[in-house]
Design a protein that fits this description.
The structure is a single chain. By secondary structure, this protein is of the alpha+beta class. It folds into three domains: about 120 residues, Acyl-CoA dehydrogenase/oxidase, N-terminal domain (Butyryl-Coa Dehydrogenase, subunit A, domain 1), CATH 1.10.540.10; about 110 residues, Butyryl-CoA Dehydrogenase, subunit A, domain 2 (Beta Barrel), CATH 2.40.110; about 325 residues, Butyryl-CoA Dehydrogenase, subunit A, domain 3. Helix content is about 55%, strand content about 10%. The chain has 20 helices and ten strands. Strands 1, 2, 3, 4, 5, 6, 7 and 8 form an eight-stranded mixed β-sheet that branches.
Length: about 575
């Protein structure tokens, strides 16, 4: 087994290899650079040369568990590696790879050993999977339609159509959530693994491509089945397992997909920083304008907040599987929201250049267009909030202020993790150690020497989060039964929003508390934590303490150093090409 240091070196080498293969995105002579990727996006295509490079790298191996011949053993690592792709082109990250992973997870979670070997062989051979969720699990389809699989002797007859499935034409196999029982209920749907090479060609056909504003290169189209026969071995899990498999799969995919798209946020910030340094107004650079400086520092802080929550959620899949259902929904809800708002703020810095569709500024606009599509296409805001709300009253009674601390490994950026075990994931969260770690946070900070001159401000901010949790606990305990259903009131949705902000605050506190200056001097310093908690506490509506002078200069220096030294704007501070 790899030691932690060897494991970390191996991950760093994979990221570095992807960066090397793609090269400097700003280099006009780079055949995989921004100019070429933007041109492909304008044509509504995935860049063929980029797909070939990903195939040569063996990106699909990142989606296949190690015991089946791949490289997947940690969910946090998967998000970390894919950022290199999403940093350049979300269409490529989603259309070439992540879509196959979204489909494969259901097979890893519920498939037979033979089905798992079949899917592993397909992906490791460079093939693709596509997935079509059903309405109950998905919650935000473009068009309300679904498949029906009528059980027959020895198999199924597949009927119906869906209009928007990424890669449905290009994929060699499909994972379909299909209705197998006409009556309503949680056992009405099942999962089918469909090898298209085994289908009679006269029993299925494709529907026209669905054009979208964002992720234009993704091949979204539909498929229609008409009494299409499937063998009995197409069933994944048991008959009626569809909802359970979807909810278990979402605990992984909702955690890791937002982690991947942080690469796009990196590009947006990097573009804005480059513009602010180069563009001059009234004999001074844009970066000298206080509003621009504050916006850039705020964007960097939001990326760090997002990555703290993504880190905790992806590592919880391994360390706290009994809590992952609510954490996954929270990260899938909050991160796209934060990144969308951050991109909007940065667009103001760019001014009219935000509308440019070519070159470095064109990349910014592309990421702004892509982000909402990625967020919607997998599971949108309402679906995630609907997962969180019914669980809060029970967690408020049983998990908050119980003295149960989150494990240190949840926050250690580069520490090893136990192997992924999908069998340990549960449908309803039984504990909540992450938000529970806010208990006593203010007292711990008051005794922490590393806080230095930030001790007073950090203590006040942590106390505000703890007070908010106590208030939330009381409201959740008194939540009316109707608010625990799909008919929940706007107040219940606001409670879910506040809860996700508390999770983010707990994640930031945990990351800071468990980093040593020897491991990472920046993450161990209190300035970024104070900035992060200030932004979260402000969203929660609490009074803000005054931060020590120079806190924003400290963060701006970090932003500029990472820009000039080509290092990523996330927790990993990774060297990047360009």
């Amino acid at each position: 087994m790899l030691t932690p240091s060897q494991e970390e070196v191996t991950v760093q080498q994979r990221v570095a290899e992807l960066e090397r293969r793609f090269g400097d995105p700003a280099d006009p002579d780079n055949p995989l650079g921004l100019d070429v990727l933007l041109a492909a996006d304008e044509r509504g295509e995935l860049l063929a040369a980029a797909e070939e490079e990903l195939a040569a790298f063996g990106l699909n191996a990142e989606f296949v568990p190690r015991h089946l011949g791949g490289r997947l053993d940690r969910i946090d690592t998967l998000g970390r590696v894919l950022r290199a792709v999403f940093r350049r082109d979300a269409s490529l990250g989603l259309g070439y790879g992540a879509t196959s992973f979204l489909a494969a997870v259901a097979v890893w979670a519920g498939g037979t050993p033979e089905q798992q070997r079949e899917v592993a062989g397909l992906l490791l051979g460079g093939g693709r999977l596509a997935i079509a969720y059903h309405e109950l699990a998905h919650g935000n389809d473009f068009v309300r339609n679904e498949f029906r699989a009528v059980p027959t002797d020895g198999g199924f007859l597949l009927e119906g159509e869906k209009h928007v499935i990424n890669n449905v034409v290009r994929a060699e196999a499909l994972v379909l959530f299909s209705r197998t029982e006409e009556s309503a209920g949680s056992r009405s749907h099942s999962v089918l693994l469909v090898d298209k090479s085994r289908l009679p060609t006269d029993r299925y056909g494709y529907l026209p491509r669905y054009e979208t504003v964002g992720v234009r290169g993704c091949q979204n189209a539909g498929v229609r089945f008409s009494e299409c026969p499937l063998a009995g071995d197409a069933l994944v899990g048991r008959l009626g397992d569809g909802v359970e498999l979807a909810l278990r799969s979402f605990q992984i995919t909702r955690s890791v997909l937002p982690s991947m798209i942080l690469g796009g946020g990196d590009t947006a910030l990097r573009t804005a920083v480059g513009f602010a340094l180069d563009r001059r107004l009234y004999h001074r650079s844009v970066l000298e304008i206080p509003h621009a400086r504050a916006t850039i520092v705020g964007a960097f802080t939001d990326l760090l907040i997002s990555d703290c929550l993504a880190l905790a959620a992806t590592r919880a899949v391994h360390l706290l599987p009994e809590a992952t259902s609510v954490y996954a929904a929270a990260v899938k809800y909050l991160l796209p929201k934060l990144l969308t708002e951050t991109a909007y703020d940065l667009s103001i810095v760019l001014g009219a250049n935000f509308y440019v569709r070519e070159g470095a500024y064109g990349a910014f606009q592309k990421h702004v267009r892509d982000l909402p599509m990625i967020s919607l296409g997998h599971a949108g805001t309402a679906a995630c909030q609907a997962t969180i709300i019914p669980q809060l009253p029970r967690l408020a009674r049983t998990s908050w202020f119980t003295g149960t601390a989150a494990p240190a490994g949840l926050f250690r950026v580069r520490d090893p993790l136990p192997p992924l075990d999908t069998g340990r994931l549960v449908l309803v969260a039984g504990s909540d150690a992450l938000v529970g770690s806010l208990e006593g946070a203010a007292a711990r900070i008051a005794e922490e020497r590393r806080a230095g001159e930030y001790t007073g401000a950090l203590t006040a901010l942590a106390a505000a989060l703890e007070d908010e949790l106590r208030s939330l606990q009381a409201e959740c305990r008194d939540m009316p039964p109707k608010d625990r259903t799909v008919l929940a009131s706007p107040k219940a949705y606001a409670i879910a929003d506040r809860y996700t902000l508390l999770l983010a605050g707990a994640a930031c506190l945990g990351v800071w508390s468990h980093q040593s200056p020897e491991d990472d001097a920046f993450l161990a310093s209190p300035a970024w934590l104070a900035a992060a908690l200030t932004r979260l506490v402000k969203r929660l509506g609490h009074p803000l303490p005054k931060l020590p002078d120079g806190w924003d200069d400290r963060l701006l220096d970090e932003v500029l150093n990472r820009f000039h030294e080509a290092r990523s704007y996330d927790l990993y501070d990774t060297p990047i090409a360009g």
